[in-house]
Amino acid sequence: IQLTQSPSLLSASVGDRVTLSCKGSQNINNYLAWYQQKLGEAPKLLIYNTNSLQTGIPSRFSGSGSGTDYTLTISSLQPEDVATYFCYQYNNGLTFGSGTKLEIK
Amino acid sequence: EVQLVESGGGLVQPGRSLKLSCAASGFTFSNYYMAWVRQAPKKGLEWVATISTSGSRTYYPDSVKGRFTISRDNAKSSLYLQMNSLKSEDTATYYCARRAVGVMDAWGQGASVTVSS
Questions:
Q1: Which residues of A touch B45 (CB under 8 A)?
Q2: Burial class (CB in 10 A: 0-12, 13-18, 19+), B21
Q3: How far apart are CA A33 and CA A71, in angstroms?
Q4: Which tens digit of pLDDT belongs to each residue from A22-79?
Q5: Under a CB-based contact definition with an 8 Å cutoff, are residues A101 and A9 in contact?
Q6: Rounded-to-integer distance, Cα B71 and Cα B50, Å
Q7: For residues A35 and B98, what is the distance between their CA atoms, to the nearest angstrom?
Q8: Which of A31, A90, A99 sits opposite B44 (nearest CB)?
Q9: What is the DSSP string of A58-97?
């Protein structure tokens, strides 16, 4: 399954509601996760099974979707959210999306 | 606290071999599937290998199948990746990761591998 993330680059202001998209080439059956990777660091798990928040992750992060289309939403963007975000499917094989780089405007 | 610490990275010539190690602590290593994931410079993430709790089952993508071997030593809480016939396109940071509920929920800091003559 191939994953297409959009946009590849997103600039937003502090406090904005931000939405990142991930689209699969086939049905993912909700086996979709999101990772945050800050510069020079390892990826960190944010969301798994489409909408389950990993322990310790702030509640401003949420996930939704079904079938082939999934979304990561940050309800109020904070400066520390600057990072690249990857989606990841584990329904059929294991594949990552190409990432969305999130910047502060 | 869960900790995964990779070692063994470095510069290697094309066609040669390299073995990465990952020391795990802070959890019961033998209870978890483990995986390796790599990231080429300024690129995305690519799953490289997965191993079952006992080590009896291993899984690879076509890009490394037949060249890379994942293994583990549960007595030492250690994970390994033997990489043979290395190519320039194997240049990447290699992350050791714990697998839980299908996802990689804990990652090491990464080991850098450069394949170049």
A1: 35, 43, 86, 88, 96
A2: middle
A3: 10
A4: 999 999 999 999 999 999 999 999 999 999 999 999 999 999 999 999 999 999 999 9
A5: yes
A6: 9
A7: 14
A8: A99
A9: -TTEEEEEETTEEEEEESS--GGG-EEEEEEE-SSS-EE-
